[in-house]
């Protein structure tokens, strides 16, 4: 097969995964978690096309579109699986998938290419990769010829958590390739059963394939306001380390809309545009892990239908999911229950009502509760910290700094800090002095003194930090220098 341009993976890494709270939170949502397997969902997505078709080229590295707040964790997770040259487009605000794909298509144009793009949300699971690759191969020839393809998942149950695509019967397009008849919102249970019985309804996967130029033509015809805002944002884009930052003001003015609403539902009604839409049937163990019942469905279960993750025990229970991240969780006499334990929150839910977890998150946000946004363990570009204890005028943190990484040069107005090295070697800047500390050694940083913590070694540095003072908030920080380009008072502990 002769291909003008290779297949370009476009990873859509937005979303907050509120229905998987308390494990998924806005600052560290589900796409960065290890839920089903040994890698995070983002890493699995980035590697999903490896070896899919040797005769068809693949761009060596994807375009990834993600929230500005998640840029460092996204980049570090890609680096961890050997992807070193991804183009990371930073959305200053979330505007849904249609603007995200438009930014990626415009970036491909800047690079002088017109690749076939495969848009993949970063928070999906695909268990049967050969079947997935076969569907991608069927879709590729259609997209290369100018069509816009979505992947329609063959349903195996009356699912109320997914949208649906109604397809025309297979015609001249070939096996597993359908013309799209209509789209349907997430149904109630009786409607979902009717869709399953009808046989011509499929789950809407949120996966799309289209040439970059064809997507630009489609969005221009269907939503010129989105295209105009994205073009302005990319014209004003700036390079920041390894990231591409579209212009903030221009992108904030962009309307929010999904690929389905903005384009897929409109194109069949606009034959004059000349871009046909197709659905390729996908039967590859797909799930978007939208809620805890979906995770239970893809995990290994015992003969009673129970799934456990972490240090968990069940007795006389059925169809239950127990997840422990920090301590033993035990259940007795449970049926269709989900229990998820984290260091700072525990969820107990009816497995048949897990879609409603988002309402808990909404209430937390309404009440200004930090647990909607952050975990106790907070990731930073240099590593992470865990706030392990606190009280009046003191706070204790466990801090891990990656090899070669360093925090910003900073000072605090209201707190002093005492650092004890638990593992590794620390390079300390304390006022005008710079010195090394080894395991079991400590140092003291007075209030108001400039300081920096760095790891000059080749193994992780772990310290215990004891803060004391009249105010211990994360906004009590002034940065003087930062190798990660962050601004003063922007992101707490640095």
Output the structural class: alpha/beta
**What does the overall shape look like?**
globular
The radius of gyration over CA amounts to: 24 Å
What percent of the residues sit in helical stretches (DSSP H or I)? 10-25%
- This entry's quaternary arrangement is single chain
Overall average pLDDT: 92
CATH superfamily of the largest domain, by name, is Spore Coat Polysaccharide Biosynthesis Protein SpsA, Chain A
Number of helical elements? 11
Task: Report the biggest beta sheet as strand number plus sense, adding barrel if it closes.
Answer: 6 strands, antiparallel
The CATH topology name of the largest domain reads Spore Coat Polysaccharide Biosynthesis Protein SpsA, Chain A
Q: Taking strands numbered 1, 2, ... along the chain, how are they ordered across the largest sheet?
A: 20-21-22-29-24-27
Low-confidence stretches: 489-493
Known CATH architecture of the largest domain: Alpha-Beta Complex
CATH class of the largest domain: Alpha Beta
- Return the domain count: 3
Annotation, overall tally of beta strands: 30
- Termini separation comes to 51 Å
Q: What fraction of residues sit in β-strands?
A: 25-35%
């Amino acid at each position: 097969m002769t291909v003008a341009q290779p297949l370009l993976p476009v990873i859509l890494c937005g979303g907050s995964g509120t229905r998987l709270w308390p494990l998924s939170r806005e600052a560290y949502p589900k796409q960065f978690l290890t839920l089903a397997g040994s890698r995070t969902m983002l890493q699995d997505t980035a590697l999903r096309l490896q070896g899919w078709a040797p005769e068809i080229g693949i761009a060596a590295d994807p375009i990834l579109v993600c929230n500005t707040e998640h840029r460092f964790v996204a980049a570090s997770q890609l680096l961890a699986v050997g992807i070193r040259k991804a183009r990371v487009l930073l959305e200053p605000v979330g505007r849904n998938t249609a603007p995200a794909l438009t930014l990626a298509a415009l970036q491909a144009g800047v690079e002088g290419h017109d690749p076939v793009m495969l848009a993949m949300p970063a928070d999906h699971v695909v268990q049967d990769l050969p079947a997935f690759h076969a569907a991608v191969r069927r879709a590729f020839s259609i997209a290369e010829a100018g069509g816009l393809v979505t992947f329609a998942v063959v349903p195996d149950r009356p699912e109320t958590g997914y949208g649906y695509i109604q397809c025309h019967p297979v015609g001249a397009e070939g096996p597993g390739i359908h013309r799209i008849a209509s789209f349907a919102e997430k149904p109630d249970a009786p409607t979902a059963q009717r869709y399953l019985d009808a046989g011509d309804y499929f789950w809407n996967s949120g996966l799309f394939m289209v040439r970059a130029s064809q997507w630009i033509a489609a969005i221009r015809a269907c939503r010129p306001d989105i295209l105009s805002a994205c073009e302005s944002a990319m014209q004003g884009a700036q390079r920041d380390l390894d990231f591409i930052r579209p212009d903030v003001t221009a992108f904030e003015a962009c309307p929010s809309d999904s690929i389905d609403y903005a384009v897929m539902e409109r194109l069949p009604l606009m034959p004059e545009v000349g871009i046909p839409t197709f659905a390729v049937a996908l039967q590859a163990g797909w799930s978007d892990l939208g809620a805890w019942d979906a995770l239970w469905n893809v995990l290994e279960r015992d003969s009673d239908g129970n799934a456990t993750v972490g240090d968990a025990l069940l007795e006389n229970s059925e169809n239950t999911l127990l997840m422990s991240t920090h301590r033993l969780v035990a259940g007795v006499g449970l049926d269709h229950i989900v229990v998820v334990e984290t260091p700072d929150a525990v969820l107990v839910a009816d497995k048949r009502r897990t879609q409603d977890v988002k309402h808990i998150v909404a209430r937390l946000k309404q009440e200004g509760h930090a647990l909607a946004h952050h975990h106790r363990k907070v990731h930073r570009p240099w590593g992470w910290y865990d706030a392990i204890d606190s009280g009046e005028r003191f706070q204790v943190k466990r801090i891990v700094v990656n090899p070669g990484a360093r925090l910003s040069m900073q000072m605090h107005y209201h707190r002093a800090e005492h650092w004890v090295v638990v593992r590794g070697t620390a390079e300390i800047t304390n006022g005008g002095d710079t010195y090394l500390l080894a395991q079991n050694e400590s140092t003291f940083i007075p209030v108001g003194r400039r300081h920096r913590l760095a790891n000059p070694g080749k193994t992780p540095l772990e310290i215990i930090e004891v803060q004391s003072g009249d105010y211990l908030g994360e906004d009590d920080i002034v940065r003087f220098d930062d190798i990660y380009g962050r601004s003063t008072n922007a992101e707490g502990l640095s």
